[in-house]
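Budget justification note: compute hours in this period were largely spent on complex prediction jobs such as the one shown. Inputs:
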Amino acid sequence: MILIVGGAGQGKLAFARERFGFSGADAAPGGPVWNDFHLAVRDCLRAGGDVAALTERASRCELVLCDEIGCGVVPIDREERRWREETGRACQLLAQKARAVYRVVCGIPVCLKEEEPC
Amino acid sequence: MTALVYGGSACGKSAFAERLLAACPGAPKYYAACMEPSGEEAFERIRRHRALRAGKGFATVEAQRSLASLPLPPGCAVLLECLGTLTANELFAPGATPESALASLRGGLSFLARQAETLIVVGNDVFADGMDYGEGTRTYLRVLAAVQRELAQEADFVAEIVCGLPIVHKGAPELFGPSCSGKETAAP
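Corresponding output:
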């Protein structure tokens, strides 16, 4: 699995498309690409679901894309805090399991981890 | 030659960008100020930035919107500060739409890139807080991210500034002059 993180609007999907040949259509449920993983974590928490199981499922994808959401002021709202914490921890787990991790900034991919040439 | 220098607030991006401007080819050297001079906080910020620039020989040119009509001579060097403010000015101007703002931003930046020997743009890192500020701000973030991505793609040099130090994502600061190695520089 390859993990691609970055702030909103930084060009993660465009990078995935260019480097790995995936399209937006591959991101359909059950497909090889899990786009907007941070939103799945939010929905999972709202539904009282199991984020660990969600993360395990994501780790079996070929490509996981997730917004970085933890760089603001800690929110007053408990659910908002929990969303950021669970997303951050899930990303740490995914990054451990990933064979490569990229952070996209201003459309530029920055390699954080690469076990083998991708 | 075009540079994008970005980061969070008070990360030292302005000071780093000014070092590039001081060292880079192109003359005369302009500081293109995007902030609308209104309100005490804006004046205070402007005072602080003016003090930073004092004695460096940069001429200030007001650049609040529609940069394609700025009276800048060919071959000059320009430091534009900053993209976040410029985007807000363009997007929230009376009668503006996201499309018209994008068109004006793109037209302005490509004009500057053509006209100037060196263009240095200060950008903003405001995309990773997970907040939803509502429709108006979502649009603002989308437009700013798009312009910043496009600029990064065209740029010869892109650096993220953290605690005054550059993390270089593209190119090398030496492009702008030997004194821009990005290592600790002596106070002027």
